[in-house]
Amino acid sequence: EQEGHVFQNEKSKIFSRSTDTLLDPAVAALCAQGPDGEKGMEVAPDGLIILGAPMGSSDFLRENLDKKGLLVENELEKLEKLAASNTDGGKQAALLMLKYCTYPKVTHLLRSIPPSVIDDAAKRHDGSIARALSKMIAPSDPLERGAQLKGPDGTVFDDWRRERAEQQAQLAVQAGGLGLYSLRLLSPIAYVSAWADFLRFM
Length: 202
What we know:
mainly alpha; 6 strands; elongated; two-stranded antiparallel sheet; 202 residues
């Protein structure tokens, strides 16, 4: 403070996986009310959001991943309506927003959350993207499992072909895909890469 720097307790939180740490007298002193009535630091027993990424217990992480999943699904629903509208260029606009705006909303979390924790959320995200893409392709929802669709030559578009179509969409654009990579496949790679990047500074 003598140098003009003010530490604002009310804007800070304390988290630790150790209960003993949170019960330490030094932590209690930080959380206590200041002499002029200033609010002390707040203990976050379950976790914190740091730079948009949840850090904490597995339950805290999954709770925040569920919220992010709902956000993505709500946006996809709006994009599906845009694609189905008669708006000129609506389908193209919806696909571009899916790829560059909605799809990446959770990719940064792959580097900070263990694959074992994020796996269900990654699977949910992959499924949500695939369903939205299917409805943008055609109102018949061609990628929906079990649907009986036939091509002009009588070829049945069965679940095997649907799975191949989803896999192709997950390929890089240079490989003939849409660049909508599977988060379940990326998760272990991203997490290990983040640790490797971090260990360079240790």
